[in-house]
Amino acid sequence: MKNGSSNSPSTSLGALVSELGAGVKFDASQLSQAAKDWLDARVTEQVSARVADLELLVQERVAKARADLESRLRSQIEQEMIHEVEESRKREEESKKRCIELEENLENKMKELEETEKKLVKS
Fold this sequence. Notes:
single chain; 2 helices; 80% helix; disordered N terminus
């Protein structure tokens, strides 16, 4: 009985013997039931330990990837906010300049109007 992947550890005694290959002289039928049970328990224990190690590794990698992603997103958002603040300041400065120009224009028109009124009164 063989697992789907040749890299996967075997969980049964028969599969373990099969994986060891023909060069190893091992006859599982000569083992007592207690020895077979013990071997089966050891194989299961080792596979379980390896699976637990792999699960921990995956969890660590996921946590690191999540932290990296959060860091990149925070940095990107911060850069976008800085850009928006700069753009807002530029718009504010342009608005102030435009207001000053409009005020100056209004003052000039008021002066012209006053001069025109003076001329009309003199005439």
